[in-house]
Structures are given as structure tokens and as C-alpha cells.
């Protein structure tokens, strides 16, 4: 079943859940971004050194890759990292990126101190808010995690308003904001669906506090944008895979490699909602450049059964002994 396309005519960001996987969907998404003359001209117009973008969470998997993509597209970048008083952080993987010496500035900021983002946002035309507090093990009370996420996100938006140069904010959300619903299962889950916070707090599935924080944060930034005349769009991401420039192996990439590593017993999930990090970066940049994006956008083509992943890896890399799946 083909997932329903969004209302944007340039970049097809398709919905999260389809019961039947189809690789044709991915090809259609890629072709739509390449063939649209409108998108191409807009990208050229905005990408020729005509703006500085603030990317929060610059040392993370997504943040660092988005920085790389922005520099390649001709943008200047301000990025934020959390300060660590106990040690000096090695950010050479960012400063060594092509174009970084001329166009990348790095600032210390922390979601626990929303006002700390002000200097990084000043002078920027756009913000990509990828930073988020992650506590899958629920070591902190959910209320603490949620408050930090909301206060941090709204603090960044307030800094954007104060700067008076920010035209748009793209907030990086998560599939957890649509995956836990009390509604009957659908063939396609679209942007109108939200995870049920009361259900999450009652059932407490794995990473439930993270899911609650993402739902309430996303709703808060959309409401703030609407009330204050700031253009805010949100991008709902599932399991992200692909190359990386950060020094630590990203958790999602490590999980994608479990078959190659022979760790069959750790797989657990039998189907993955998956998107490539290159598509994630392109989606962020498109939503920045498009003349009139609105609201939420889910960013995943289809569900991939683990058996299909095993078949693809075995065919492409026969040198790896992929364990049989029963």
C-alpha cells in the first residue's frame, strides 16, 4: 500500500505506517525532490551564502550530519553543544568538516538553561532544534524530563523571536509522538495522529517518559509559533540509519548492524520504521527553504521487516555470516 503523500508539491514526506513495504515509495520520494524545478530554484536562491542557521545538539548523530549538509549547501552554521566542566570536548569532527573553518561557529548551551541559547541564535535566519533530553532508562521522573524538554524548546523559540532575524524553526520530533495511540490500528498514520499521553503514563512502555516529553514538547512549539507569529514546522523521525561523522557509534546505527555483528538475540523488534540520515538532512533543509510549510511532517517511507533486512544484507554483503531468522 502506498503511503499517502503530504500536501506539499515539491518534497514528498510520506507517512509513518504502511502495512506493506514498497521500495518504489522511496524512489518516488527521491525523484520528487530532484525533478521539481520550483524546489531547485528555491534551494539555489537561499543556499548561496544568504543565511546562518542555528543547529542545536551539534555533536549528536543528526545534528552533526545536518551541519555537514548545510555547509555543503552554502549555509553558515551556528551550533550548540553542552558544556562539560570536567573535561574539554573534542569537536574536531565538526571543525574539520569542509567549509567549517569559514562558516561554522560553536557555542555552549544547555536545555536546562534556556537563555543560554541566545548568543547562538542571534543573527540566524533559521533554527533546527535537534537537541533533546534522552532518558530511555527512566532514571529521572518523567515530569523532570518533560519540563526540561519543553522549557528548552520554548527558550530557543523565544531567543528566535528576540533575535528578530529568525524566519523559521524546524523542530526535530520523533515517531514516538505518533506510535502510542489508543485509536484502532490504521494502515496509514498521518500527521493528525498523536500518541496518547495518558496511555503512556498508565502502561509505561519502554522509553515512555521520552515519548511523553516529545509529544508535549512538539505540541508546545507548534502552539508557541501559532500564538507568536513565528513559523514553526515539526519533522517526525523514526529509526534513523546511515553514515555518521560523530565519533560515537549512534545507537540506531548500532541496532541496524546487529545482524552483521551476529547479535541476533538482541534484535527484539521484528519490524522497523526506518529513514536514511541523508533524507533527514534534506527534509530539514527543504522545510527551511519552502515558501509556506505548515505544521507537522512525518518522514518515513515504510515498515521494513527484519527478515527483509537480513535478505538485503546477505545479498549485498555475502562475506558476513548473517544468522538465519525463523
Automatic annotation (TrEMBL):
SUPFAM superfamilies: NAD(P)-binding Rossmann-fold domains
Keywords: NADP, Oxidoreductase
Keyword hit for Cell membrane: no
Keyword Zinc in annotation: no
Matches recorded under Gene3D superfamilies: NAD(P)-binding Rossmann-like Domain (3.40.50.720)
Alphabetized GO MF terms: oxidoreductase activity, acting on the CH-OH group of donors, NAD or NADP as acceptor
Residues annotated as domain NAD-dependent epimerase/dehydratase: 53-298
Stored InterPro entries: Epimerase_deHydtase, NAD(P)-bd_dom_sf, NAD(P)_dehydrat-like
Family: Belongs to the NAD(P)-dependent epimerase/dehydratase family. Dihydroflavonol-4-reductase subfamily.
Protein name: Vestitone reductase isoform B
Organism: Glycine soja (Wild soybean)
Amino acid at each position: 500500500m502506498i503511503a499517502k503523500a503530504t500536501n506539499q508539491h515539491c518534497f514528498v514526506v510520506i507517512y509513518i505506517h504502511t502495512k506493506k513495504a514498497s521500495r518504489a515509495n522511496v524512489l518516488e520520494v527521491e525523484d520528487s525532490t530532484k525533478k521539481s524545478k520550483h524546489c531547485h530554484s528555491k534551494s539555489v536562491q537561499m543556499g548561496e551564502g544568504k543565511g546562518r542557521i542555528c543547529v542545536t545538539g551539534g555533536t549528536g548523530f543528526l545534528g552533526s550530519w545536518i551541519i555537514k549538509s548545510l555547509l555543503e549547501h552554502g549555509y553558515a552554521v551556528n551550533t550548540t553543544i553542552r558544556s562539560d566542566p570536567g573535561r574539554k570536548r573534542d569537536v574536531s569532527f565538526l571543525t574539520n568538516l569542509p567549509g567549517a573553518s569559514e562558516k561554522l561557529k560553536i557555542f555552549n548551551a544547555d536545555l536546562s538553561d534556556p537563555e543560554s541559547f541566545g548568543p547562538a541564535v542571534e543573527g540566524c535566519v533559521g533554527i533546527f532544534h535537534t537537541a533533546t533530553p534522552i532518558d530511555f532508562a527512566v532514571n529521572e521522573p518523567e515530569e523532570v524530563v518533560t519540563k526540561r524538554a519543553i522549557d528548552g524548546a520554548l527558550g530557543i523559540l523565544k531567543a528566535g523571536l528576540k533575535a528578530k532575524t529568525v524566519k523559521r524553526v524546524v523542530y526535530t520530533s520523533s515517531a514516538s509522538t505518533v506510535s502510542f495511540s489508543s485509536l484502532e490500528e490504521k494502515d496509514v498514520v498521518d500527521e493528525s495522529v498523536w500518541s496518547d499521553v495518558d496511555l503512556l503514563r498508565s502502561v509505561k512502555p519502554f522509553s515512555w517518559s521520552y515519548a511523553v516529553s516529545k509529544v508535549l514538547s512538539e505540541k508546545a512549539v507548534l502552539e508557541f509559533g501559532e500564538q507568536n507569529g513565528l513559523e514553526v514546522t515539526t519533522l517526525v523521525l523514526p529509526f534513523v540509519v546511515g553514515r555518521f561523522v560523530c565519533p560515537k557509534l549512534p545507537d540506531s546505527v548500532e541496532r541496524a548492524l546487529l545482524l552483521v555483528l551476529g547479535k541476533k538475540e538482541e534484535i527484539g523488534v521484528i519490524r522497523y520504521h526506518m529513514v536514511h540520515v541523508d533524507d533527514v538532512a534534506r527534509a530539514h533543509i527543504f522545510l527551511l527553504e519552502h515558501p509556506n510549510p505548515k505544521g507537522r511532517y512525518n518522514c518515513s517511507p515504510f515498515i521494513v521487516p527484519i527478515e527483509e533486512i537480513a535478505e538485503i544484507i546477505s545479498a549485498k554483503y555475502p562475506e558476513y555470516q548473517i544468522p538465519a531468522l525463523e
